[in-house]
Amino acid sequence: MQITAIREVDCPDCGTPTSISIPTGDVELRFSHSVAAFGEQTKVTCSNGHTYWVHFCR
Ligand SMILES: [Zn+2]
Fold first, then answer.
1. 16 C-alpha to center of ligand 1: Å?
2. pLDDT in tens, 12-25
3. What's the CA-to-centroid distance between 30 and ligand 1, angstroms?
4. So where are the chain's domains?
5. How far apart are CA 16 and CA 2, in angstroms?
6. Going by C-beta distance under 8 Å and a sequence separation of 6 or more, which residues neighbour residue 7?
7. In what order do the strands lie in the sheet with 40-45?
8. What angle do CA 44, 33, 10 make, to 5 degrees?
């Protein structure tokens, strides 16, 4: 996965912003509590300890 941008995302549980690396600046971010079977995604843990996945949708 090519990392080209940093974007701030809000935790779906508590709203705490976390900076993540995204593959390009032109993807739609979708949040999930489970890993997807395919596609580009990254695991995020907010400062309150919530873990969620961010999926990159083109
Ligand atoms: Zn959180």
1. 6
2. 999 999 999 998 76
3. 15
4. 5-57
5. 26
6. 19, 20, 22, 25, 29
7. 28-32, 51-57, 40-45
8. 50
Residue 2, Cβ neighbours under 10 Å: how many?
A: 7
Pairing between β-strand 40-45 and β-strand 51-57 as defined by DSSP bridges: antiparallel
Residues with CB under 5 A from ligand 1 (ion): 11, 13-14, 16, 46, 48, 50
Reported as a single tens digit per residue, the pLDDT across 37-50 is 888 899 999 999 99
- Tokens found for residue 30: 């979708």
Residues 6+ apart with CB under 8 A from 46: 11, 13, 14, 16, 18, 52
User: Strands, DSSP E only, in 1-58?
Assistant: 5-10, 17-22, 28-32, 40-45, 51-57
Record the pTM. Answer: 0.84
